[in-house]
Design brief:
Blueprint lengths: L5 H14 L10 H6 L14 E6 L3 H10 L5 E6 L10 H12 L5 E5 L8 H9 L2 E2 L5 H6 L1 H9 L5 E4 L1 H5 L1 H6 L11 H4 L5 E6 L4 H14 L2 E6 L3 H11 L7
Parallel strand pairs: 1-2, 1-3, 3-4, 5-6, 6-7
Helix pairs in contact: 1-4, 4-5
Amino acid sequence: MATASPRRGRAARLSKRAALSLPQGKSLDAQSLTEHGLAAPERERKTGRILLIACGALAREILAITRANQFDHIDLTCLPAKLHLYPDQIVTHVEAAVTKHRAVYDQIYVVYADCGTGGQLQQSCAELGVEMVPGPHCYAFFEGTDRFNAYADAGEITAFYLTDFLVKQFDAFVWRPMGLDKNPELRDMIFGNYTTLIYQSQTEDPDLLEKARACAARMGLDFQHRHTGYGELETTLMDWATPNPSSD
């Protein structure tokens, strides 16, 4: 039986990626970013600009960084944050977004860490020739990967982490997916291996802090707050935004 050539096989995969529905969201509302992501702006071919393809959970943080630093040459599109509930789908959606936009942008960067893809996202980005954020997940790059690993080595292995976005979307990402809205009696069984909820705040918002405390109480966990700011997300974006002297 005849087999497809590697070139034709790759073309078929690219065609499949391009056929996926791309983000359509226009709002920075947390629920819209969860369900719809954030659509890319309409641009002409080869604008000399940079596109960031990010998780919807990072949209507000990325825009805060780019606006504060007047990175007017950077555009942002976000995949729906709910893909974190189905990490096996992240790679395919990232590939589709890169394939769709690479003819328009001089540079594309992927603002995801590994995020539960088991190294597949890193492999795909390498094949596509685009750079991504290093590290296992956003908790690590907000905290600083070395610092996060040091906490883990010191025994912080029974912590449940929330960011600003996840505090806002606690029910959508934690409570309902685990069935606790319908079966609250399962709480202690589900969270029995955790001892502490650690809220990594990116902004100083008293309302979010109180909501995070309430999340810990609902989960039956101790509460700890660490203000991380934007951490390595900011330093990574600063590096990407700076023109490479060796580039044409």
